[in-house]
């Protein structure tokens, strides 16, 4: 028996293969050695041809291959592959490469041919040529080769014979169990041939698709789906998957996107570029058009206490496990790209029509939560009829899809809803779960489906939260974040972080508000109740804000903030005479609501940092003497009132 | 046992192949006449234009007796010039008039008919399983005597699943359909769908000779046919691309569509 002869290289090479096969050896024999190589077409006729070796792939069952003298197509023996059962402890699949130590000149052939049959009808996962256990630059393979219990001749076309002048990768295969069970494959008469009857090469990248995508600066995209389809001697088409190194890639605009010989696109500038490819002189089907757009700013950082939140996606919280952020359901064209904005993880959906987000393996129990939150940003037009929809699905008590207990509800957001859809702005979708009226149970939430006309959507901070039991907390649980401006750049009216300018009154006798000093976690805060408008006067020592650029104030309210609720800040300058009246007083009032940036929200500190130039009516600011706060929220906690530059 | 049987079959196939490959023709029996060009279409014209209506007419409809799957139309998307001096007969996968494919079938019936002569066409084949293009002649008296009494001369037939083979056949009373007198010409390492080849028949009072690129591979003498010799009256020319049917089998999901037969010219000669 020849058995011993073949076991020996298998065992010795296996160790090498585990290292070699998955690393990329950069050696290119074509460049190093212009010498001619022998023309040897035979791979396995009745035994290994001259210089042929076999190595099992890492993780495969290394004893899968043997020489069979009983079953053969012709001659005295064939190659037998015993595909193992599922979970075979010696290796879960059969796979290996037949390669030579010295290169062979195969450039006069057009196909590797062989006869094959199997102990049952099956589809062999991969058979191919050009795997030399190194760089394998000529890798070409056929996926899902159908074999039956009868001998049949097969051919793997050589994609570009001119590259096969010193080839070492003669043949390789990889196959797992069929329906969990192993079986046997036989290959015989494996050799290279010049058939002459393989025609009509049709190269393709990206599976022949013409793709459009939005990319960001520095992003790297890899072109896959590289293949060439031939019409075979029997008139049928055969697709051969080939490495990208067979192609020459071309960018229509190198100042936007560069592409290297491996089909890796790097975004280097703003604008548009189309990347195409050629196989020799022949244009490949498929292309990718890249639009490089501005990134959104960082999304507002959530401020809900972690104990009140079940987060699906936010850098501010620990997130629960999500099975997938893009289910790839039939007809969904959405493409998900994970990006970072100023270090913050964001999900970018392009080509969005609808997209499933699934967490069925660990459903979310949101029975104690009151609100759903999601931040979105789109560069696309958002004027009506554009809309963005959020669908929540609960799998019901059985916890699985179907079974008659699934419930769901979809909310639609447009430029006319609250929250208001907007272009190039972070829109905070922050809605009570009670608004999802059809979602009658929410103990087994398993799917979130987003859809919309904005085809490009950045998504951040997806979470459920609890906003007080039966009402919002009436008192902030944490102080406002301490300002970090240098003291030399600040004129403060009220802040624990700075020395404060004297204030005559925090509630003038002409206003409609009550004020109290409260302490939140050691931090002094002004609390206004019964607020209609509050007059704050600092007339005895007016403020010269000519050197300042911004007005800053933190507020917190337990009251509803949905539109039309708003807060207003008015600054009054008493003019050169420094006193009220006299014809030189100037003032300006700014209004903020749930649609502003940042939005007015309930139960969270909202930090307004407003350029003084926005107070357009404030023609002078050398003698600022009054601040008037107006609000529908009747209770307002206020902190860190200051001017800075 | 299976292996042995297979080997036997292979030997048989090889033997057949050797016979059909045209290395052994013997044309000494019949002298070659001098041919004079009497009719031609070079298919010059703008892309999308229909072929010359003074030379060609259409068979419109489906199933011409062979259970073909296509509906033949006179639409330019099925029959038109390509603007480069060729005629395209294009088979498409599209539902039309109750059929799953469309294609075209043009003929010179009533426009040009001739007894005897040399008929030749330069053609590049379509490809894919179930594609069945043909260049053939049919007896003009078909309306009165019917088929196969009218006679049929298939100068070229081709099966898309055998892109390296073509077939030349005559049909007549007692030797029609599967009993037609047929011979196959094949390339071992080439195909008929990659470039153009010239297919011709030379027809005299007592013989028919079939050619590919001036290689004669099939010769039938009046005494060879096992029935009446019906090749002494005018015949007309047909060019068509069938899809499916009992000669070629069905197209598969692997058959690429659309597929065009590209005809550079058709020329007819008379013996001087």
Looking at this protein, list some descriptive labels.
heterodimer; A: 645 residues; mainly beta; Jelly Rolls; Immunoglobulin-like; 4 domains; nine-stranded antiparallel beta sheet; eight-stranded antiparallel beta sheet; disordered N terminus; B: 272 residues; seven-stranded antiparallel beta sheet; 18 strands; globular
Describe the protein in words:
- Chain A is mainly beta and 645 residues long.
- Chain A has 4 domains: 3-196, Sandwich (Jelly Rolls), CATH 2.60.120.260; 200-292, Immunoglobulin-like (Sandwich); 306-465, Galactose-binding lectin (Jelly Rolls); 487-644, Galactose-binding lectin (Jelly Rolls, Sandwich), CATH 2.60.120.430.
- Chain A is 3% helix and 43% strand.
- The radius of gyration of chain A is 35 Å and the shape is elongated.
- Chain A starts with a helix and ends with a strand.
- Residues 1-27 of chain A have low confidence and may be disordered.
- With 272 residues, chain B is mostly beta strands.
- Chain B has one domain (34-271): Sandwich (Jelly Rolls), CATH 2.60.120.
- Chain B is built from 2 helices and 18 strands.
- In chain B, the strands form 2 sheets. In chain B, strands 1, 3, 4, 5, 6, 7, 9, 14, 15, 16 and 18 form an 11-stranded mixed beta sheet that branches. A 7-stranded antiparallel beta sheet of chain B has the order 2-8-17-10-11-12-13, with no helix packed on it.
- Chain B is globular and about 45 Å long.
- The model of chain B is unreliable at 1-29 (pLDDT under 50).
- Classes of the chains: A mainly beta (645), B mainly beta (272).
